[in-house]
Sequence to fold (486 residues):
Amino acid sequence: SALPVAPKKEKEDVQFAKKYLENFYDFKEEKHSLFKAKDLSLMADKIREMQSFFGLKVTGELNHETMDMMKQPRCGIPDIRS
Amino acid sequence: YSTFPHSPTWQKEDVTYRILNYTPDMLQADVEEAIARAFQLWSSVTPLKFTRVYGGQADIMISFAAGFHGDFYSFDGPGGTLAHAYPPSSGIGGDAHFDEDENWTKFTTYGGYNLFLVAAHELGHSLGLSHSNVFGALMYPIYMARDTRDYQLHQDDIDGIQALYGPPRESSTLPTKPFPTQEPTETIPAEAPTQMSPREEPTETTPFKPPQRPEDCDPHLTFDAITTLRGETLFFKDSYVWRKSPYFSEIEHDTIFSFWPSLIAGFDAAYEVDKRDRVLFFKDDQYWAVSGYNIEPGFPKPIHSLGFPTSVRKIDAAVHDQNTKRTYFFVGHKYWSFNENTHSMERGYPRKIAADFPGIGYPIDAALQKNGYFYFFRGSNQYEVDIKRKKLIRIMKSNSWFNC
Fold:
């Protein structure tokens, strides 16, 4: 695996993570959802799925190592599909 | 391993492929060889045969493209997504696309992506495998720079593809081992043979064979140098690197060449100045500074520029104390203290190792600072020393970090 990278800004990270989970973990953001909390919960589920797939600590949070893993160069095929 | 929904496969053993275009990053012949080698990985463990065609429709169409290229998965510029491929079916099924915005290379280097490795992964998709979460498997979705000179499929990959196509036929005329790669003698630094006895100088007929990597739990395992690097711990022996990451329990095996191809194997010492994201490697009377993959310009530099007397020809080990910002250099039975803030050797040195670090002996092979302790490695033993009290706490096997 690549050498670890330097830390990044949080907001960018969230956007990056959303795109990553959409591309590779079948995450569908409900663009006009009235319930922000529901959206976040859905995303946390997908983060957990990704963390479990890569053997990371399953926290549902966008922590340092999860973001690092998302930033690694990789194949464009999804890791899971509905 | 995993397959695509409904496990699509090619309903035949003879599969054709066509290379539609090339990347300007590599010689056309190197692109063709990388792809042929990738196919050979899979044909060597299945009954499948791959034939290249030069026109018309092939089962697997291979192309390089950047950004939007006519399917639903646009590429994203350098890094990120490197390539993708489609499971077996007619039309786009089986096709493999490579992101032209990447820097494709024939060998594993830093800043480039080994086309053979990525192609072998994507062809796994072209044959029906999806991603595997087995770390180290070829079908693991993350690109892992590794030495591909004698690359073998992971058992998980073999289990997956044979679940789809079965094992190779007995009478198969194909070799069961991948054909030997072109030894990259032209790219290995001429100094590399220093690892071999003069009798084994590489000649046209004697391929260069690096020493085998010792087993992780070999009780006699010793190290040349050890350093931390952005939270990981790297153990060096000859050209091999053992990487211990706080994120994964497994030890990863790499080579110095795969990260820093221009550096000579067989370091004497290494240490990290964490606040500057900088690691220094020492070999003989020279030293290099790297930041991640990048070797800082102006290196190598002579070790005497650090303040050693000319009588010092090489150093045995080095360790940086993050709290005091001092780096200790060990040479024979003495050690020096270097102030990283003032970039100068401290007065009153060298001192005797035995005076300040009783019980650890010398010479020292490698040194590491972790969790408030120094670890001094001598042969197959390591000595844990409380940094503040400079008191020997315990003696362990050098490879105790490898979960042996």
The interface with chain B takes residues 1-6, 23-24, 53-56, 65, 68-69, 72-79, 81 of chain A (CB under 8 Å). Chain A has a mean pLDDT of 83.
